[in-house]
Write a structure and sequence with these properties.
The protein has about 350 residues and is α/β, with parallel strands linked by helices. It has two domains: about 60 residues, Alpha-Beta Plaits (2-Layer Sandwich); about 260 residues, TIM Barrel, CATH 3.20.20.70. The protein has an eight-stranded parallel beta sheet. A four-stranded antiparallel beta sheet has the order 2-3-1-4. Strands 5-6 form a two-stranded antiparallel ribbon. The longest helix has 23 residues. The radius of gyration is 21 Å and the shape is globular.
Length: about 350
């Protein structure tokens, strides 16, 4: 159930929030420009619309039919913009997260961080805990990797994006990460989603390799239902019958998400294609179709990378990609404004 307030109804919004909470509902309030929206979560089936319609300051009351209540576009007509250390994700902003798949050494992550910062990245990515298909593959440096990421941030000022795999590691990841990533394999790890929903770090949620868009949004709903509304969605390719690429990049998800939800949506062309030659074209397409940004794998020496070398760009290749996609985004924004 959603309640739309008339303009400038701050005190009445709080009174209505208290009224809803007294009957056992959770209330998420979005304070917009001159208009507040209350999303009521819980068993609203027995609550008549008239219970709130007659209250002072109420403009409209309606039910949300989708199972994802808080992530729904109906819960928030305005795009969510998430700000981290002066950098904004969502809305008309185009954000680029870049860095290696895995943190391998202190020198490697700092060198890469310096270069991606110089070439236009907004955030630094790097995995300290790595989910791998084979138990014999490099699994990441763990806490030591997180400490190397901190040193890279101190060197460059780039906020850190890194993956959390296990609830037991949440305190360490929380301490070092500015954005906590939940990978594709954990998209439906509901206990983990609830855990990160209780923390105050933004969450980058990657789509599962075989998940529908509704399942994707329902996973976001798990996080938001625990109180953390700062969720960033990320499409990283889905599994189809095609074997030429690592995965199949579903660009349609951008249009669908922007229609269905207010949350920002990024594209990961590195994992979606698995081939370095495809990363730049896929990135251009993402910018053209209206994605809110990219997460790109960049390594100072991809040929020696311990993880995902074949899909990682050299820093100089990232420089060219960054310049191109930002021009495309700017043109799309100008076209939309006309």
């Amino acid at each position: 159930m959603v309640i739309v307030m008339k303009q400038d109804q701050g005190e009445k919004t709080e009174a209505l929030k208290n009224r809803a909470e007294k009957i056992g509902l959770q209330v998420i309030v979005t304070y917009g420009a001159g208009q507040n929206i209350l999303a009521l979560v819980g068993d609203t089936r027995k609550v008549e619309l008239s219970y709130f319609e007659g209250e002072p300051g109420v403009e409209k009351v309606y039910r949300i039919q989708e199972p994802y209540k808080l992530a729904s576009r109906y819960a928030n007509r305005v795009d969510t913009i998430i700000e981290i250390e002066g950098r904004k994700i969502g809305g008309h902003n185009f954000t680029i997260i870049a860095g290696p798949c895995s943190v391998e050494t202190e020198a490697q992550i700092i060198e890469t961080a310096i270069k991606v910062k110089a070439y236009g990245a907004d955030f630094l990515r790097g995995g300290a805990f790595k989910p791998r298909t084979s138990p014999y593959s490099f699994q990441g440096l763990g806490l030591e990797g997180l400490k190397f990421l901190r040193k890279a941030k101190e060197e460059t000022g780039l906020p850190i994006v890194t993956e959390l795999m296990d609830p037991h590691d949440i305190d360490d990841v929380y301490k070092y990460a500015d954005i906590i990533q939940i990978g594709a394999r954990n998209m439906q790890n509901f206990s983990l989603l609830r855990e990160v929903g209780r923390c105050d770090r933004p969450i980058l949620l990657k789509r599962g390799m075989s998940s529908t868009i509704q399942e994707f949004l329902m996973s976001a709903e798990y996080i938001m239902s625990e109180g953390n509304e700062r969720v960033i969605l990320c499409e990283r390719g889905i599994r189809t019958f095609e074997t030429h690429m690592r995965n199949t990049l579903d660009l349609n998800v951008v249009t669908a998400i922007r229609e269905m939800s207010h949350l920002p949506i990024l594209i990961d062309p590195s994992h979606a294609t698995g081939k370095v030659a495809m990363v730049d074209p896929a990135s251009r397409a993402a910018a053209a179709i209206g994605a809110h940004g990219l997460i790109i794998e960049v390594h100072n020496n991809p040929k020696e990378a311990l993880c995902d070398g074949p899909q990682s760009l050299y820093p100089e290749e990232f420089k060219q990609l960054n310049n191109t996609v930002r021009k495309i985004h700017s043109l799309v924004q100008k076209e939309a404004a006309c």
